[in-house]
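[Meeting: bench + compute handoff]

Bench side (C.D.) handed over the final construct sequence. Compute side (W.E.) agreed to return the predicted structure before the next meeting so the bench team could plan truncations. Sequence as handed over:
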Amino acid sequence: MARTADELRNAIRVAVGRFEREGAPAFTKEDLAAICDAVGYEIDTSGRLPPKAEMRAGILWKSGVVDEANPEDAPSSFRKNELEAIMAAVA
């Protein structure tokens, strides 16, 4: 049986050492930072975390979903096919 988007988000959280969350919450900045680390997208973590759009763009780029990391083109949340690609990249 195919996983739902919620199940994929939680599987990704667990794969990068974060905690599962109930319901359908979007990734937090901390979740996105952990995913960036897992897929090899370097971000500056010495101060405040970068904007979510920047991290989502980098994750999609490193997961092979897009050809370049462009925060202006990054979705406000990941679609199911994007979550599947991210899951493959972090697994």
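W.E. noted at the follow-up: The chain has a mean pLDDT of 94. C.D. will use this when planning the next construct.
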